[in-house]
# Entry
Amino acid sequence: MITELPERDAEGYLIEPGDWNEDIARALARDENIALNDDHWDAIRFMREYYDEHQIAADARFVIKHLSERYGREAQKKLFELFPYGYVKQACKIAGMRRPRAWSTG
# Structure
């Protein structure tokens, strides 16, 4: 259990994605009233792997494509069930991404 989160911006996104770990994800998810389950972790771990490889946050379409391996045509619906207040607002934040500036928070 962590006692203090790393530095965040005014909207609650990590300033430095490298400070992220799974305990921080759990704390950020609690702030968003999300109880992380295996489906959340699947999306979050994919996002972290994408970030590690490309040094940018994965666009939602890449996460949907990843989820489609398990959910088929329901993948987009599933992503928004997992993160009901939006991909950027919740998934990116919980996965420790900086807020993507060119994207809306919806």
User: Anything to note?
Assistant: The mean pLDDT is 92. The CA atoms of residues 16 and 98 lie 7 Å apart. The chain has five helices and no strands. The chain has one domain: 17-94.
